[in-house]
Design brief:
10 helices, mainly alpha, 201 residues
């Protein structure tokens, strides 16, 4: 979402009213990933509800809620604090990609079954689901919102999935392969989804 969808939204929708969806969708996306997503990732490994609660009380989720409170209450933070937070945030993107690149570098050659699974991910996550989201949402929402939802649904797998897999003893190699393949594939699938939805409409 951060690497692909936000730049596309900013390129496609130049009006400030349309760009207001970026922080809203970022907040919703992050909250869902670090609550429901984390619970699904660690199912069978989470242990008791108390242990799951500790996992859900993580720095990312806490920071999102603090950001929402600060923005909602129009609190102006000191410039040095904003500068440091902005600089650390910009570095984290690059560090995430470096980690992902290192993981992919040491991957074993994928077998036929893994390649089949990755192909299914590309077909369903990057083509079928975004097209379905657009077709359903276009009956209820204006075109701008429908297109933004379609782009979010068609975003590649999140880069942090490989780190979560590593932390919780899951298949880090498979997660990294999924991130790499979906990120490369979205250069073809996003234009394809636009063509499919335009043709169906």
């Amino acid at each position: 979402y951060g690497f692909v969808v936000i730049p596309l939204i900013m390129a496609l929708f130049t009006e400030a009213a349309d760009r207001q969806y970026i922080p809203i969708c970022s907040a919703v996306d992050t909250v869902v990933v670090w609550t429901l997503g984390l619970a699904l990732f660690t199912r069978g490994k989470a242990g008791s509800f108390k242990e799951l609660g500790k996992k859900l009380f993580n720095p990312i989720l806490v920071s999102i809620f603090f950001a929402l409170i600060i923005n909602s209450m129009d609190i102006v933070l000191p410039e040095p604090f904003v500068y440091v937070a902005d600089s650390v945030g910009n570095v984290s993107y690059s560090m995430g990609l470096v980690y992902l690149g290192c993981t992919i570098c040491f991957l074993k050659k994928p077998g036929l079954s893994e390649l089949r699974n990755i192909t299914m991910i590309v077909g369903t996550k990057l083509i079928l689901i975004p097209a379905a989201v657009f077709l359903i949402s276009s009956y209820f929402l204006p075109m701008t919102e429908s297109l933004i939802l379609m782009l979010i649904a068609g975003a590649p797998s999140m880069t942090t999935s490989s780190m979560i897999a590593k932390q919780y003893g899951l298949d880090e190699g498979y997660a990294s392969t999924a991130v790499f393949v979906t990120t490369i594939s979205c250069m073809v699938t996003i234009p394809l989804v636009f063509l499919i939805t335009a043709w169906i409409r």
